[in-house]
Amino acid sequence: MSLSPSRRRIIATAAAALPAAALPAIGLATGAGTASAASALPGGGDLGPNVIVFDPATPGIQAKLDEIFKRQESDQFGRGRYALLFKPGTYHGLNAQLGFYTSVMGLGLSPDDTLINGDVTVDAGWFGGNATQNFWRSAENLALNPVSGTNRFAVSQASPFRRMHVRGNLNLAPDGYGWASGGYIADCRIDGTVQPYSQQQWYTRDSAVGGWLNGVWNMVFSGVEGAPAQSFPDPPYTTLPTTPVSREKPFLYLDGGEYKVFLPALRTGARGTSWGRGTPQGTSLPLSRFYVVKEGATAATVNAAVAQGLHLLFTPGVYHVDRPIQITRPGTVVLGIGYPTIVPDGGVSALRVADVDGVRLAGLLVDAGPRNSEVLVEIGPAGASAGHAADPITVQDVFVRIGGAGAGKATTSLVVNSNHTIIDHTWIWRADHGDGVGWETNRADYGVVVNGDDVLATGLFVEHFNKYDVQWNGERGRTVFFQNEKAYDAPDQAAVQDGAVRGFAAYKVADSVTTHEGWGLGSYCYYKDAPTIVQDHGFAAPRRPGVKFHDLLVVSLGGKGQYAHVINDHGAPTSGTDTVPSKVVSYP
Length: 588
What we know:
Layout: H1 5-8, E1 11-12, E2 51-54, H2 61-72, E3 82-86, E4 89-97, E5 102-106, E6 114-121, E7 137-140, E8 143-144, E9 150-152, E10 161-162, E11 165-166, E12 169-171, E13 184-186, E14 189-195, E15 201-212, E16 218-225, E17 237-240, E18 243-247, E19 251-255, E20 258-264, E21 266-270, E22 282-286, E23 290-293, H3 299-308, E24 311-314, E25 318-321, E26 325-327, E27 333-336, E28 341-344, E29 351-353, E30 360-367, E31 373-379, E32 394-402, E33 410-416, E34 422-430, E35 446-450, E36 456-463, E37 470-472, E38 477-485, E39 497-498, E40 501-502, E41 507-509, E42 516-525, E43 534-535, E44 539-540, E45 547-556, E46 562-563, E47 582-587
Parallel strand pairs: 1-22, 2-3, 3-5, 4-6, 5-7, 6-8, 7-10, 8-11, 9-12, 10-13, 11-14, 12-14, 13-15, 14-15, 15-16, 16-17, 23-24, 24-27, 25-28, 26-29, 27-30, 28-30, 29-31, 30-32, 31-33, 32-34, 33-35, 34-36, 35-37, 36-38, 37-41, 38-42, 41-44, 42-45, 43-46
Antiparallel strand pairs: 18-21, 19-20, 20-22, 39-40, 45-47
């Protein structure tokens, strides 16, 4: 089905496609495939073998979906990566079950351009009905008519549900209502009721829902039409009428027969979806302006493409880099589909962004290598000072993992030095299970360090770091929703001692900061190897009028460790083996 003329009338900022030239041979050896001045890298091209495109006439769609799910259902730390793309049109009788590293996406300009009379399902049969390890999968830009009237999407971290229209209910729990620890919804319309059931926490942004069933520990909403009213601590709903600043994730779509990438416009005081009131606001770039990155490409080749003026589309795969990928040009789009995974070798950084306007990073997984990297992802160099309020850098669905797939180390996972950066949904995870896991084996002291001013985080998930999970040094920072677990494997109290303070806070605002604000923040501890450990607090911040927190909680999971306070010396302690949160409605 072709797009209507009205949907083609979007502002195009792309220049003419660069001249195509034969692609140099790309190898795994250091520096292989670097483009010379006489041999420019071409834009566009095919999307590779792990991007599977369907249209309504494609035979055997369900069989192909089942084949990929069987391969990926329990392959938590494997190399398989897939993007399943559905051209605009109507599909009948499908159930796209999503396993690890699988993304399903519609190729319309609006979700309603691609309708599945069926389901996009995530369940937890592979893990005995426990959904707490249903990571790294996504659903985007589709309309669903669920067969039973309710679509099941039982996920935990790093599993976004974006730009979806569910013409029915959305169930976020596994069959049997087992444990689940999600999750994230953005730019979606759910005509029926969202049913979290056993979900411990959830963040929903700039969407519309027909109803919301319940909350367990921490349910946060910003800019959501139909969201429940503010009621924390009981029910545990934190509701902001709008999102301060947002810009939706870029996405691939078809304009007639041509692939393009749509870049949604910046919104302030956003509420509701970006697409439900006519032609979406934004610009588009043809795929010919992108270097399509495939497995085997080196950092040298990728950097040459950026220097040449191309944007980057990473296709599903695992990419080892021997030097950082350098994003130096304003407005560069770096979009991954199907969980492309960047692994830095030799202790280098994986990705560095210059202090320039408008860079968009989206849809990437960074996996620490066995030799320690000081920083895995750096947004702006140290000392960055430019203002980017009119055109901020955005970091969306960019996930970081230290260990799990093998021994990995990184002193700091994500450093944000550039002012006005928007971090929109990230899971920064020091692994607590899998291969290469141990207090020193996958050592990682800091999850997120924010040095820039006016940085906004919407949907911040950071877990298990040896020291501070979040260290916020910049002024006027804001966080809407935070989920944290302290490191499970701390060997004793001394290992987590912060000077005279027992335990490193999950979220620390520097003593020098005068203005900061957070809404809906939770920290949990489960010191399985040393259950007598005490955290003096989950949150630490200077006591000043400009530093404000709303709706905080700490939880001891089964009494394995305890919190003495929630924030600083404020808030009741957790106690005993009952997993009951201690909550603070406002601070100071």
